[in-house]
Amino acid sequence: MDREPGRSEMIRWGEKPDRNEFRHYMAAAFAAIIAGIVIISFYFIVKRFDGLKASIDAANRVLLPFVFGLAIAFMMNPIMEFFEKYLLKWFLPRKKSEETIRKTRHIIRLISSTVAVIVLVGILVLFFSIVTPQIVSSITYILNHINEQLAGVLDWANQITGKRFEETLMYAKEDENIANFIDNVVDMALKYMKWDEQSAMVSGITSSAMLVGRVIFAFFVGLVAAIYILTDKEIFKGQAKKMVYGVFKPQHANIIMEVARKARDVFYGFIVGKIIDSAIIGLICYVSMLILGMPYPVLVAVIVGVTNVIPIFGPYIGAVPTVTIIFFTNPTKGIIFLLYIIILQQVDGNIIGPKILGDSTGLSAFWVLFAIVVGGGMFGVIGMLFAVPMMALIYYICQRIFRYLARKRGLPAETGAYLKLDIVDPVTGKIVMMKARSVEEKPAEHKRFGRKKPEEKQ
């Protein structure tokens, strides 16, 4: 839904369109499109050339701690500001020199940043200390009793089919056949991961372990980097603004700053809101499973909550393994859980999600779906996570440009004014609605498209 721009936006974008200002915005949009094309092209070039890809991977490994640091600082900034607000109120000296006040502010900022990072670490440690043992226990139980669970599913299938296929099902239930089935599934999984040979398996496990180790190391370095970023964030902002206004003309720099602020609002609102929404869904799922007496409540709730971060497709991605796990344990409860997860996702999509996220992106359902499909197809899971806020930013820029063009031609800037538009009168410049045109006006179409009227041809 379009909103009427505020006074500051009207001044920035101009109530009376200016040709130079329009050129600035078109140049910015063109630069954004070219940048997107260059990034996508570079991505596929890297995928094609192994040497270049290896260099980029090495650079990513070096920069990963700082990426973590920026992300942690971005997420923990409100918590840091919360602690800083009260620490300044309690400890900031009133009647001291400016140098003393400046040093005190810096110390309080450093303490607030450190406490915010400690809070994050504490939440993660508490979460994993509670969840990890139960997840390991659930997975161990499933692996140790997979034969009995598959046999139970076959017995259930025999009952609901009225024993019409009893001979076939009982043959499949034999231990040897179940073991062969499990071996075939494992072989397919190993071939899919290219671990079908022992050397490849050892190499894959070693690579995975090293990757996990690098990520953990980068995360802890990122925690330290986040403290420094939060402590000196105003300095970094000032340096970035100085660079923008030093390189670009004021008109162009103002546009860049406006887009940067919009990007901050969109990304922060969407990502933080989605994390909160997913945490609530995971908690609701856990409590509901305890009430319904479902098996593996912690494991299932974690899968549902984590996959819910991905818009639209996330709930369905999470439903596949969770329903399968419960179905193998108790087929009836598996079906009940499938119905429950459908209801839960409807509640999330129509009540919980909109309340938390609001209109943080300003995108319709079609553009959200488009962004997720394109982002996921090109950049995988990471693309699915960040495609929606990126699409929202592109949509915002295009929306502003087209509003500007409409006002330049003396036309309404709001989309609602065009929903029932038939034509725009070329003489008066006014919008003619569909029902407003009479039958006598239809010959004017010939003039509009440059064709002669029937009587003029004779």
Tell me what you see in this structure.
This protein has 458 residues and is an all-alpha fold. It has a domain at 420-452. 80% of the residues lie in helices and 2% in strands. It is built from 16 helices and two strands. The chain has helices spanning 7-13, 19-48, 50-91, 98-144, 146-160, 166-173, 175-192, 198-231, 233-247, 250-292, 297-307, 314-329, 331-357, 365-408, 444-448, 454-457, and strands at 421-424, 431-433. Helix 5 runs antiparallel to helix 6 (166-173). The protein is globular and about 80 Å long. Mean pLDDT is 79; it is low at 1-15 and 439-458.
Layout of helices and strands, plus pairs?
Layout: H1 7-13, H2 19-48, H3 50-91, H4 98-144, H5 146-160, H6 166-173, H7 175-192, H8 198-231, H9 233-247, H10 250-292, H11 297-307, H12 314-329, H13 331-357, H14 365-408, E1 421-424, E2 431-433, H15 444-448, H16 454-457
Antiparallel strand pairs: 1-2
Helix pairs in contact: 2-3, 2-10, 2-14, 3-4, 3-8, 4-8, 5-6, 9-10, 10-11, 10-13, 10-14, 11-12, 12-13
